[in-house]
Amino acid sequence: MSSYSFPADFIWGAATAAYQIEGAAATGGRKPSVWDTFSAQPGRVLNNDTGAVACDHYNRYASDIKLMAELGIRHYRFSLSWPRILPDGRGAANQPGLDFYKRLVDCLHQHGITPHATLFHWDSPQALENLYGSWRSREIAKDFSDYAGLVVRELGDRITHWMTINEIFCFTHIGYGIGQVPIHAPGTIVSSAKEVWQTSHHALLAHGMACQAIRAASLVPCSIALVDNFVPTVPIAETPEHIAAAQTAFHLNGTNGGIAEPALTGQYSPALLKQLGADAPDIQDGDLKIIHQPLDAFGFNNYSGTLVRAIDQAPGYEFLSFPKSYPKLHMPWLFFAPDSTYWGIRHISETLNRPDLPIFITENGCAAEDELTTNGEVLDTDRILFLQQYLRSAHRAICEGYPLKGYFVWSLLDNFEWAWGYDRRFGITYIDYATQQRVPKSSAHWYAECIRQNRVV
Ligand code: FCB
Questions:
Q1: Residue nearest to atom 10 of ligand 1 (CA)
Q2: Are 301 and 232 in contact (CB under 8 A)?
Q3: Is 166 among the annotated ligand-binding positions?
Q4: Residue 207 assigned as binding residue
Q5: 363 CB near ligand 1 (under 6 Å)
Q6: 256 CA to middle of ligand 1, Å?
Q7: Given this model, what pLDDT does residue 179 score?
Q8: Per-domain residue ranges for the chain?
Q9: What does pTM read for this prediction?
Q10: Span 11-453: which CATH code?
Q11: Upper half-sphere CA count for residue 374 (Cβ side, 13 Å)
Q12: Is 167 one of the catalytic residues?
C-alpha cells in the first residue's frame, strides 16, 4: 500500500511571477513598474539587483515550458505584467505585450500544461503611481478592473483559471511604510496606519471589481480566485483549549481579519476593527458587497505560521514568538511550520466558515543555500524535507475532508526574490545567472516523482 496518496484529480503545479522571472523590462513596449523604479534606486535591493534581466524567461519561455513538461508538471501558475499589457496602466493596450502572453499560453497548451494566470503580482505600473499614488487612491480599483476585463477579452479563449491579486498585504502594508523606509515597492512613506489600511482596502475593492469584470468578459465558464498569504495560527498542542485559542487568535494575527476575512465573509473582523480604532480604513457604503464576490477557489500562499496557546487571562490566548534555535530556512521569516498547511486550510473552512470554498495552495516552498556540486547537481535535501512535511500536512487536511484541490510549488525557477534580489533561491530549478543555464535540483526530481505517483514520496 502506498502511503500519502492524493485524490486522483489532485492538481500538482509550479508557480512563478512576471517581474521575478521575465526580464526584458524595456522590450516590446513595456514601461516601468514600481519594482523597476524601486530596484533601480541604490540600496533598496540587496546587491542592487534588479529584475531587468532576471531569468530571461521572456526569451526562454519555450525551453522553460519544455523543462516543466519533462518534469511532468501539468499546471502552471504565472502572472501577467500589467505594464507589459498597459504600459501606462490604463488606455491603449500594447499588442506586443498581449502577443507575448498568447505565445506563452499556446506553448503551455502544446505541452499539455494548464495555465493558471494571476493578473497582478505586485508590479504596478509606475505611471499610475505617478498619476495618483496607485494603491493610495480608490481610482486604482477601476483601472485594475478595466485591465482585468481587457486581459480576459484577449486571452479568455486560452485561459480559464484566473487569480486576481497576489498577497495584498505585501504590496500595501510593506510597500507603504509609516515613518520608516518600506522594504517593498513603491517604497513610499505614508503618515499613518490608517493610510496603510486604506491601501489594502483599495486592493480589496480592485479584487472585487476585477471579479465582476472577469465574469462579464469571459465567454466561457471560468474559475476566479483571490490569492492571499494570511498567516495560520497553529495551536501549541492539539487540545480543545489550544485549538479554540488558535481559532480566536486567527482574526487578529497580522492582517488576517482585514484581508482574507472581508474577501471571504463580507466583513472585516469586528475584533480587528476594535483594535484598529481610528486606524481602520474608511469603508464606503457598498464596498463590502463589492469586495465579497462569489469565488470559485481561494489561493493560500503557505510558508510559515504563528504558534498560539491558551492562557487563563483575557483575551484567552497568547501569540508565541519562535525561540532562538527554532529551525528555519534561508529567510529570516521562514520558520519551519508544516502544520501551518493543515491549520491554514482548516481555518478557512472552519474559522471563517467557508467549508464550501475549494482551496489551492498557490505557493509553498523555501529558500535554501543551494550549491552546485562539481558534477553539476544541487542536492537540496533541506528543500525536500521542507516540501515533504508541508505536503504531508496538506494530505492530512484532505483526509479530514477539507476541500484542498491542488498545490503549486514556489518556485519553478530560482528568481528575483524582491528586496533580497538573486541572493535567495526558492526554485526547484537552479539558475546560473551568468549563463542562464537551468539545472533541476534534487527537489525537482523528487517533486516529479510525487506527481508521477500522485503521493508524497
Ligand atoms: C511570496 C511571494 C512570491 C515569493 C515568495 C517567496 O510572498 O508571493 O513572489 O517572493 O513569497
A1: 417
A2: no
A3: yes
A4: no
A5: yes
A6: 17
A7: 82
A8: 11-453
A9: 0.98
A10: 3.20.20.80
A11: 0
A12: yes
Helix extents (H) in 4-76:
18-21, 34-40, 57-70
What pLDDT score does 180 carry?
Answer: 84
- In 3D space, the residue among 64, 59, 57, 98 whose CA is nearest the CA of residue 81 turns out to be 98
Ligand 1 atom closest to 227 (CA) = 8
Say how far apart CA 54 and CA 19 lie, in whole Å: 8
Choosing from 22, 154, 167, 261, the catalytic residue is 167
Confidence at residue 177, expressed as pLDDT on a 0 to 100 scale: 87
Q: What is the pLDDT of residue 2?
A: 66
pLDDT at 347: 99
Cell numbers at 450, concatenated:
510525487
Is residue 167 lining ligand 1, measured as CB closer than 6 Å?
yes
* Distance, CA of 240 to CA of 84 (rounded, Å): 51
Our answer to whether residue 363 is catalytic in this structure is yes
Q: How many residues does the chain have?
A: 457
Evaluate: CB of 134 within 6 angstroms of ligand 1.
no
Residue 61 contacts residue 104 (beta carbons within 8 Å): yes
Q: What is the DSSP letter of 17?
A: -
Strands 306-310 and 317-320, how do they pair? antiparallel
The answer to whether 299 touches 163, Cβ cutoff 8 Å, is yes
Question: For the chain, which residues score pLDDT lower than 50?
Answer: 1
> 124 CB under 6 A from ligand 1?
no
d(CA 33, CA 204): 20
Question: Which pLDDT belongs to residue 24?
Answer: 98
Q: Are 309 and 280 in contact (CB under 8 A)?
A: no
Is-cis flag, bond preceding 358, omega within 30? no
pLDDT score, position 1: 46
> C-alpha dihedral over 224, 11, 336, 440, to 10 degrees?
-120
